Structure prediction request, 279 residues.
Amino acid sequence: MMLTGTRSPIRPFETGKRKGNNSGGNPRSKKRLVLTIVIVLLIALIAAAALYVSTPYGPSAEAQAALKGDTAVAVSQTDDWIEFEPVGGEKVKQPGVIFYPGGRVKAEAYAAFARDLAETGRHVFIAKMPLNFAFLGQNEAEKIAKKYPDETFAIGGHSLGGPFAARYAAEHPKEIAGIFFLASYAESKGDLSAAQMPALSITASGDDVLNREKYAEGRKYLPADAQYEVIKGGNHGQFGSYGDQGGDGKASISGAKQREQTVALISAWLDAIPASGAK
Prediction:
C-alpha cells in the first residue's frame, strides 16, 4: 500500500531549523561559559598575585650579619621598624634617617646599608612595610617620629619606596629635614618642587629596572637645587643586599663598593643639612 501526502515521513537529508534547535546555541549556555572563563582567569590572577606577594626578595647573608649589634652600632627591631643606633661617647648626629624599602623587598635586605650609614654617627631606621610594599605603608615614618619626638629626620627610599617617601615628605614638610632617592623619583602626589627641603637623587649606570622616563619626569617634582649623583658600574639591586633582581643590568662593581659610595654620598649630603633643618 502506498503512502499518500506531500511529504515523506522519512527525511534523513532534510535541512532547515527545527523548533527549539537554535543554530546560534543556547544564550544561557554561552553566558555560563563566559562566566566560567572569567572565574578561571580571576582565580589564576589571584593565585599569581598571591605567589608574587608571598615571595619577596629577602636579605643576603651579609645583610643578615648586619642585623647583629656590636660595640659600634646597636641594632634592635619592633614590628614596625629596624633600628640602628651608633654607640660610644660621641653625640649622635642630626638629622637621623628613616628609610623606605623597595617594592617586594624585605626591610632586612637593607641592613648592611643602614648599619654602614649608622656608623657615620646617624640614628637610622628601616621602616617595615605591610606585605613589603610602601604604597601600603606611606605613613610608617610617623610612628618613628612619634617615638623620637626630640630628633629630626631625613627620609629616603629605594625604588618603589622613593615615591611614597616623597608623598610623606610632601604632607609633612615642616617635620622632614631632607629627602633622598636611591634608583627612584618623586611624582605628582609627592610634589616637593616648592618645598624648602634638601633633596638628593642617586642612580646607578647599570640599572635596567629604573623607569628612566618617569625618573626624568620626576625631576620637576623636586626642588630646583636638588643634587643628582650617578654610581658608575652599579645596578638597581645593589642599593640593597638581596641578590640579583629580575630584569636588572649586570653590575661591574661589587655590592660592597656600591654601598660604600652610596653611604659616602648620603653622609656628606646629611652633614650639609643644619641640625635645625626641621621642626
About this structure: The helical segments are 27-53, 61-66, 111-118, 140-147, 161-171, 212-218, 255-271. Residues 66-271 form a domain with the Rossmann fold fold (CATH 3.40.50.1820).
